[in-house]
Design brief:
Radius of gyration: 12 Å
Strand content: 15-25%
Distance between the termini: 25 Å
Shape: globular
Structural class: alpha+beta
Oligomer: single chain
Order of helices and strands: EHHEEEE
Number of domains: 1
């Protein structure tokens, strides 16, 4: 999505889905809006999660497109 790293300061725990609505992309869309066209996988503290997973104030979150291998 154009950036390798951003820092968002949270004052309380939120869900991955809520975090996606807080992240603004360079084109002005939120990460949530952008993921409607290109599904994203998420990991919190290096564990795969869905949009309902809780993100603690000090968590590391990664978003990436689905991958395949063989």
């Amino acid at each position: 999505m154009g950036q390798s790293e951003i820092e968002i300061v949270l004052d309380r725990a939120i869900t991955v889905g809520e975090l996606k609505t807080r992240i603004k992309l360079p084109n002005g869309a939120t990460l949530n809006e952008a993921s409607q066209d290109q599904p994203l996988m998420a990991a919190v503290n290096q564990e795969m999660v869905d949009d309902f997973a809780i993100v603690a104030v000090d968590a590391e979150v990664a978003f990436f497109p689905p991958v395949t291998g063989g």
